[in-house]
Amino acid sequence: MTDKIKVGDYLIIQRQKYTKLQKFNNLNTTVNLGKDQIELRLAENHPYCTTFHLVPKQERGRRLYTLDALSTPSEIRNLKELLIKESGNDNRNIIDDRQSQALSTEEILKLREECESSSEVIGKLVENSKSFATKTEYSQEKYLKRKEKKYFEYITIRRPSIRLLTDIYWRLDPEKVLGVRFDTLSQIISYSGVCSVGNYLLYESGTNGLLPAAMLNSIGAETGGKLVHLHPGNVAQKQALFAMDYPAEQQARCVSVNIYSVLRHFYQDREGAKENEAQEPAVAEAKENETLEPVVAKAEDSTDGERAEEVNGTTKRKHEETQDGTAEEEPEAKQLKVDKQKQAWELENEAAASKMREKFDSLVIVAKEHPYSILKALLPFVKPSRPVVIFSTCREILTESYVDMKAEASVTYLRVTSNWMRQYQILPNRTHPDVTMSGSSGYLLTGYTIGN
């Protein structure tokens, strides 16, 4: 992982408080911020957190911009100091008749094309405003912020982080991350006890890879921790995981498998092992009985011809290949060839099943479905006295699970909790809660497993 922007990276494009996730696919990649289209080619090889000035390109009918890196963010002008010269005592005499701006819409659009910077455009708007000078200082600042948001000509390119990704997904559509807000995500990580050592089991059914990315972030790269990520579909959602661009060693610590496929693989292997264990005493007894050896040898000799006929010439072809000088494959080479023919999902199932046999240090379930049946299927793979965390947007679902788990007595210290986060605007003489905020970010059912 480098500290410089390169092609192939996921980038966080920040314009004031607005952030957007964008993949830098190639040098022709552009990003749309509102009606503005920005070319990213000149961002390559610049350090992350660099602030760029948007330079307009002269193309008719398009608001297309290229990037010019600033040597220091202090080059951004302070509009408050530049434009606020006098203020009124109150706004009681100001009438909003939409006639206070002397410039027409066409003239303002022409200004955007002619002026070199957004501060010049805003300055012209202030000069031609009949009511700006009579507004209070607070009202003037709000006016400038609205205009600055509209005409702001700087962006900052940042490296993706769990906090930024969570905020972006939540703002775009909370349902795409199953309603998991950042404060709830932090509680899930805290309750589950994910750290640099141990094996962890996660089931999630559609968070754009946010949950596995957050848990893998807590596990780290240079550790012995492992994460088995279960999902219901054919392909796991991993956008957030790819956006974080973890080192290859850290990415290898996460195994994503289909929950039904890996459970089938696990139990089939266990049944096969039990059958082998049951057959071992009989095989050992037969080998010890010397009187059976001639009978076995005679049976093998008498069936050689029949086997050759059943395979329709396969034995003959092998004999001809040997006559031509081609040696028959060794058993080890055959086994290696079989392993190479295994598909990636089969190898991932084997890796996940091996961790399931070792058992896990915590279980996290973030599901659209009712979580209780999933919990019953996965609980046997969790060690005693280990945390269990279940998230749902519906309190009644977790209440039902709470009652069932109490009755079974498989998990103790059960708690159903909800988060309520309130954001504040912090400004001199204007500190207050945000006018709009999310009411709830779902519910958590937590507890600890009981050993058998």
Helix-strand makeup class: alpha/beta
Q: What's the helical proportion of residues?
A: 40-55%
Percent of residues in beta strands? 15-25%
What's the arrangement of strands in the largest beta sheet?
A: 2-1-7-5-6-4-3
- In CATH, the architecture of the largest domain is 3-Layer(aba) Sandwich
Instruction: Specify the overall morphology.
Output: elongated
C-alpha Rg, in Å? 33 Å
- Contiguous low-pLDDT stretches (5 residues minimum) are 282-328
**What's the CATH first level of the largest domain?**
Alpha Beta
Kindly identify the CATH topology of the largest domain. Answer: Rossmann fold
Can you tell me the CATH superfamily of the largest domain?
Vaccinia Virus protein VP39
- Domains counted in the coordinates: how many? 3
The CA-CA distance between the termini, in Å, is: 45 Å
The number of distinct β-strands equals 16
- So how many helices? 17
Mean pLDDT: 81
Describe the main β-sheet briefly. Answer: 7 strands, mixed
Pfam families: Gcd10p (PF04189)
Subunit structure: Heterotetramer.
Function: Substrate-binding subunit of tRNA (adenine-N1-)-methyltransferase, which catalyzes the formation of N1-methyladenine at position 58 (m1A58) in initiator methionyl-tRNA.
Subcellular location: Nucleus
Report what the structure shows.
The strands form three sheets. Strands 2-1-7-5-6-4-3 form a seven-stranded mixed beta sheet. It has helices spanning 79-83, 105-114, 118-127, 137-151, 162-172, 182-192, 210-219, 239-244, 248-251, 259-288, 293-302, 304-310, 314-323, 331-341, 344-358, 371-378, 395-408; strands spanning 10-15, 18-23, 30-33, 36-39, 50-56, 64-69, 154-158, 199-204, 226-231, 254-258, 362-366, 387-392, 411-418, 424-425, 432-433, 443-449. β3 (30-33) and β4 (36-39) form a beta hairpin. It is elongated, with a radius of gyration of 33 Å. It contains 17 helices and 16 strands. 41% of the residues lie in helices and 19% in strands.
